[in-house]
Amino acid sequence: MTEADRQKLAVDFCGLSLATPLVLLSGCVGFGEEYTRVAGFSNRDVGAVCLKGTTRAPRLGNRPHRIAETPGGMLNAIGLQNPGTDHVVKHILPSLDFTETRFIANVSGSTVEEYAEVTRLFDDSPIDAIEINISCPNVKEGGVTFGNDPDMSARVVAACRAVTNKPLITKLSPNQTDIAGNARLCIEAGSDGFAVINTLMGMAIDIEQRTPIIGNNQGGLSGPAIKPVALLKVHQVYQVCKDHNIPIIGQGGIINAEDAIEFLIAGATTVGVGTALFYDPLICSKINHGIMDYLDRHGLSSVQKLTGSLTLNTPPVAPCAGS
After folding, report:
1. Residue 149 CB: number of other CB atoms within 10 A?
2. Among 3.10.290.10, 3.30.420.40, 3.20.20.70, 3.40.50.720, what is the CATH number of 3-306?
3. Residue 197, preceding bond cis, omega within 30 degrees?
4. Which residues pair with 107 in a beta bridge?
5. Fewer CB within 10 Å, N or C, the chain?
6. Whole-model pTM above 0.85?
7. Which value, to the nearest 10 degrees, does the dihedral of the CA atoms of residues 68, 71, 72, 75 take?
8. Are strands 22-24 and 48-54 parallel, antiparallel or unpaired?
9. Which are the catalytic amino acids?
């Protein structure tokens, strides 16, 4: 890829310069080192990497089974297994190559105070930005409870905002009534950007045992099956964000360049790749080239010109009664 091509793919996200619009999603790439072991993979192919969800103290996560394949997707209920913030800051972050890409911490907690404390610890680290995970459906406390309550979402954002000047990205749940209203309150509380969407809640059943396959009974559904829902949610949140210059990571079922372009047109500034990595670890390079081909075919000088370029269909006028 030429330097001119790279300039076309470059985006600005929350004041950070990203080499491409692709972001590796939290929970899919460990703490940024797992896929670097795969021949041909490079973090330079993406604009940013979201690290695994991190809590104040170490967590063992949920009982197995934690993953189940479904038609067009995957259920997971890992349960935020992680070594705790101190270990991540002291031992993992120093091992990452920050010249390759941007790294975004993913903050989780069971109380507002825990979210704030984890954010404070990441503030005193080389991490580039902080993603607030208020929408995890795989933990019994906090998690999706915060994400589905707009007032509670705003409280978490405000508490994190008070302890850091780093860019804050709020990860929004699709499992709520008014995602745009939630986004509006989070902007007022200090969110610099959004990740839209987290997984949908789902279940798979073993018909021979008549029990849920997932040990946690339910899990988060990701993959192509949720893409239409994710696209709509990105479009809805963009209506709130566009007047405030708030960027969005659009995510949910992206497996090729065409999917990524749809999310950009719907209103995303960057796009997240997650489940697709499990069956094609080298997919990001292919998506980058596909986006470049699209830009060239349409005579566009920058991928940023795609964001929010959707033109809605004019709904038909309903006929008058008696006509």
Report:
1. 16
2. 3.20.20.70
3. yes
4. 54, 132
5. C
6. yes
7. -20
8. parallel
9. 136
